[in-house]
Amino acid sequence: MAVGIFDSGLGGLTVLDAVRARLPDLPLVYYADSAHAPYGVRDRDDIHALTKRAVEHLWASGCDLVVLACNTASAAALRRMQEAGVPPGKRVLGVFVPLIEALTERQWGDNSPPREVAVKHVALFATPATVSSRAFQRELAFRAIGVDVEAQACAGVVDAIEEGDMILAEALVRSHVDALKRKMPDPEAAILGCTHYPLVQDIFQDALGPDVAVYSQPNLVADSLADYLERHPDMVGAGQANTFLTTGDPRRVSDHATQFLRRRITFEAA
Questions:
Q1: CB of 58 closer than 8 Å to CB of 29
Q2: I want to staple 98 with a disulfide (CB 3.0 to 4.6 A). Which of 3, 73, 88, 220 is the partner?
Q3: What is the extent of the structural domain holding 193?
Q4: Does 194 qualify as catalytic in the annotation?
Q5: Parallel, antiparallel, or unpaired for β 91-93 and 65-68?
Q6: Counting beta carbons within 10 angstroms of the beta carbon of residue 20, is it exposed (0 to 12), middle (13 to 18) or buried (19 or more)?
Q7: 54, 70, 245, 270: which is the annotated catalytic residue?
Q8: By percentage, how much of the chain surpasses pLDDT 90?
Q9: Domain tally for the chain?
């Protein structure tokens, strides 16, 4: 069986690339709900319904383990799906926790009480839906105390990246960083809370300045997944070749994905 990676669009390909580099023999099925992207402007019930449908499709396709490589889905749907009950033998994981554990310097699975950490002022850049969910702040509170988080909803950035308009994406990133710094002039660290944002990480870093530590998700998620699979080897079976599925137009999505990763990616209809 393969491991499923789900995103509303193409941002999760940054996670897929990091997982492939970390676990080259792991078969993967990538599912892009391109017909309904972006999720970041949808309401919580809509995001939950779409995410649940996609995850169930991946489960039915033989992916017993699914990674939500979408912060909006992780923020709005993951806890609700887990509380409703996951079928026996199935798992769904999000992308917030590895990022927060890196920020707070906690080991994977460290369930000790929250404690003081070195970083006190954190900027969070994410989609409007992720910001409004306050899921990042909730997960952070489980692990750290005394951390001030200032969130900036980065409207338009995902759309610009998905369309390949990097000039617009850069302009939007710099505008959102300026807006954040008006609220928090001197952040010590910045969280890129969307898997699209690694593609413009250098722009975030330049706009924030060299003294701000910028945390991005793909490698952190890949390392956490490797650790999880080492502890749960039963979640990986014989597997098949990597597969790319989309609810959108496969040709159009393939062209954008190829531009996105700078190598040929061929999507099939989900």
A1: yes
A2: 220
A3: 97-215
A4: yes
A5: parallel
A6: middle
A7: 70
A8: 80
A9: 2
Burial class (CB in 10 A: 0-12, 13-18, 19+), 168: middle
CA 246/CA 26 separation, integer angstroms: 20
Using pLDDT thresholds of 50, 70 and 90, give the confidence band for residue 260: confident
pLDDT at 162 over 90: no
Residues 174 and 232 in one domain: no
Give the residue from 255, 139, 131, 113 showing the smallest Cα distance to 193.
131
Q: How confident is the model at residue 112 (pLDDT cuts 50, 70, 90)?
A: confident
pLDDT in tens, 181-233: 999 999 999 999 999 999 999 999 999 999 999 999 999 999 999 999 999 98
Tokens, residue 265 = 């990616």
Based on the domain organization, do 117 and 197 belong to the same domain? yes
Name the catalytic one among 135, 194, 222, 245: 194
CATH number of the domain residue 56 falls in: 3.40.50.1860
